[in-house]
Design goal:
Low-confidence stretches: 1-8
Order of helices and strands: EHEEHHEHEHEHH
Mean pLDDT: 80
CATH superfamily: P-loop containing nucleotide triphosphate hydrolases
Largest sheet: 6 strands, mixed
Strand content: 15-25%
Distance between the termini: 29 Å
Strand order of the largest sheet: 2-3-1-4-5-6
Number of domains: 1
């Protein structure tokens, strides 16, 4: 999925950053939204080590870099310390992905808040989305209230408006959300 990038081409790049804890589904979402893979084409992915970068070709008139980050603790230390400016500069869209079945760790909220604070420093005009992923694994009778509770837990954007979506690879939510992301307008600074 990653593609080597020419260092000279990084100037003025528009960037989309996917973050979240390990096994939240970042790479799977990335492959479905940005690479157009269908459910039957998606396989079990190996953990992302550090990060993968590739160009998104959905809008050929603009060079868009997608960064799919690893969710293991050592990588977050690197992202928020040594490589903070590199990871969080020129970000147009942050997509924080929460495994809504296994989110009950304050670490998830703490790291999301750190990501928001890093965006304040390096990309204050970015859009923030939070995907509550794997909703197909939630009891459907209590899904609405469960998602509302998650929204309350994760809504600490301050001046940033956080837009929440419930997602699953087993329904049609990701292609619909891709349209709602308004990537084209964001990249033309129309939003």
């Amino acid at each position: 999925m990653s593609q080597w990038m020419d260092e000279d081409s990084e100037e003025n790049l528009e960037r989309i950053l996917l973050m979240g804890l390990a096994e939240a589904g970042k790479t799977t979402i990335c492959s479905q939204i940005f690479e157009g893979q269908k459910l039957g084409e998606i396989t079990k992915y190996d953990p992302t080590l550090n990060y993968n970068r590739f160009y998104y070709s959905g809008y050929p008139e603009k060079k868009i870099e997608v960064i799919d980050t690893g969710g293991q603790a050592p990588f977050f230390n690197i992202f928020f310390e040594r490589n903070e400016e590199f990871i969080f500069s020129n970000i147009k869209i942050l997509i924080w992905i929460v495994d809504c079945v296994n989110y009950l760790d304050d670490k998830n909220k703490e790291l999301f808040e750190k990501a928001i604070n890093s965006l304040r420093k390096y990309s204050p005009n970015s859009e923030i989305y939070c995907f509550f992923h794997k909703t197909d694994l939630i009891d459907q009778g209590s899904k609405t209230s469960y998602i509302e509770n998650l929204k309350t837990d994760f809504d600490f954007g301050g001046e940033f408006k956080i837009i929440f979506f419930a997602t699953s690879i087993f329904d049609n939510s990701l292609p619909i959300i891709h349209e709602k992301l308004n990537i084209k307008k964001l990249l033309r600074n129309e939003i």
